[in-house]
Structure formats: structure tokens, C-alpha cells
Amino acid sequence: MHEPPAHVGDQDVLDTVRATWLPDADTATHLPVGFGAHHWAASVAGERRLFVTLDGLGDRRSTDSLTAAYRAAATLAADGLEFVHASLPPLTVPFADDLLSATPWVDGHRPERLDREVTSTMLARLHATPPPEGTPRWRPLVGPDLAEDLACRARTTWDGGPFSARAQAALRSHLAAIDTWVTRYHRLAEEAASRPVVPTHGEPDVHNQLLTDRGTLLVDWESLQLAPAERDLRALDAGGPMTEMFDLEWRLDEVQQYAERFQQPHTGGADDLEAVEGLVEELERPDWHEPSDRP
């Protein structure tokens, strides 16, 4: 997130980091990176040592499910998947009604574009690994009543902030499409129930890759689940109905979260701007098609 959370200060994070992972830490600095979670660099005498993450809890994520995902990732790393950049023990710590975690700081940068060969190799190894005990299992994320819920929301007055009107107008103009997407998603989700499942990262694109001296690392394992392999393979533009389903799941979940965001009070800062642009992008991008059918 670009902006630090209003309810948490750097000193609060530093105190927890010292008590939990790094007693010698002398600074915790909020980092304007990522979207959906807050991050800090914990340092000792100017040297960055830990990458600290604050994950929010709610309907989509509980203390148990998040800790189980991080535990499974740590097991995968210990079992020989060197590209899994796992959290340090203790894997999660209660903090400001959410959960704090930390990984070792690694210098590196995000790839400019997806390296298909490297990504394919990492995913093939991940998917071939026996799942650690307790790995969270994928369940359909989109409710069958989502289209109706969004239509009801669109009929109310949105006045929470500077982007409310734009977000509501975009939603209203795509309600028919949303209804079609939800129906198609649940038809495919029924088929997914009979498919074999493997450990999946969930979001293995360039935003969660880090190029380092050790090679390419996959980071942010909070989304680790047992699921059909296409949950990851959509990042490689794979074909098939399961890829379509996970594309719809991503799209509809993003729309739902953004709609909820812009009904609420917001300031119009950098994070809000990114969110409203994300909403419009998900609503307006072309529907998924088999790779062979694309122009």
C-alpha cells in the first residue's frame, strides 16, 4: 500500500519486531509497495534485515487460515523448494486486530516482464510436491448471490468520498455482464470440485516475484492453497475451462472488494486512485477466451 495505515505507527511495528524476531532492530519504515497489505523494512544500524507484513483479517482470511498458509509455505521451503521465500517463526503475531509476519530481507527487484520458462519451472516443481499437512484448501470465493448484491448496492447512494460516483457509475453500467460472469463462474466451479488439486501459490505473476542473487523467488505466500493447477497457470496464459474459472474468480472478487471500498468513507489518496482504476479495468477488460481463439 502506498499510504501507511491510520491505526498503526512505525513505532508500534518496531516494538513488536523487537519483541518477536529481531531484538536489535532500531527502525521500522513503512514501504509504499504492493496492494492489499502493508509492509515495513526493519533495520539494524541502517541495514535492512526483515520485510514485515501486516495482513488484514476478515471474511476471506482468518488467523487459522493465514497461519496455515504460512506454515505450509515454510514446510515447502524446508523440503527443498528454494524459491519459496517463507515467513520466519513465529509465523504470525496478533497485531492491531490483524496479523504481523516477517521474512528475511533479500535485496532484489521485480522482473520487468514474466519469464515464462522460469515461472513454468517453479510452478511445475511446486505442483509436483506433496502438499504439507494442513495446507488450506481452495473453495469457491464468489457467492452465488454476488450479482444481486452488487445490483442492490448500485441502487443506493454512494457518497463516501471523491471516487464514489465514478466507481458506482462503472458498476451500474456492467451489472448485466456481472450477472453473466457469476452464472458462468458457478457452472465451472461445480466442475472444479472433481478436479485433482495441488499446492498452488495463487498469484505467481511478476508482482510476487523477486530477482535476487539466489535466483527468482516467489514471495507473499498468504494465498497458498490446494487447488486445481490452473489457479497458477492462468499467469502463463494457459487454456481450458479451469483457467477461465479462476480468471472469473479473480475478476469478480476484485469487483466486489472495490465496490465495498467505495461505498465507505475514503480520502482519494494514491491507494484509492489505484483501487478505482483497478475496478474500471476489471469491469472493462475483454472476457477471457481460449488462447487459440484470440486475435
What does this structure look like?
Helices cover 40% and strands 15% of the residues. By secondary structure, it is an alpha+beta fold. The strands form 3 sheets. A 5-stranded antiparallel β-sheet has the order 1-2-3-5-4, covered by helices on one side. The protein is globular and about 55 Å long. The two termini are 35 Å apart. The mean pLDDT is 95.
Summarize the SSE layout with pairings:
Layout: H1 10-20, E1 27-31, E2 38-44, E3 47-55, H2 63-78, E4 93-95, E5 98-104, H3 116-128, H4 146-154, H5 164-172, H6 175-192, E6 198-200, E7 209-212, E8 215-218, E9 225-227, H7 230-233, H8 241-263, H9 270-284
Antiparallel strand pairs: 1-2, 2-3, 3-5, 4-5, 6-9, 7-8
Task: Please outline what is shown here.
The chain is of the alpha+beta class and 295 residues long.
Strand order of the largest sheet: 1-2-3-5-4
- Helical fraction equals 40-55%
- How many DSSP helices? 9
Average pLDDT number: 95
SSE succession: HEEEHEEHHHHEEEEHHH
Structural class category:
alpha+beta
Organism: Nocardioides psychrotolerans
GO molecular function: transferase activity
Region (Disordered): 265-295
Keywords: Transferase
Key words describing this protein structure:
5-stranded antiparallel beta sheet, 9 helices, alpha+beta, Phosphorylase Kinase, domain 1, Aminoglycoside 3'-phosphotransferase, Chain: A, domain 2, globular, 295 residues, 9 strands
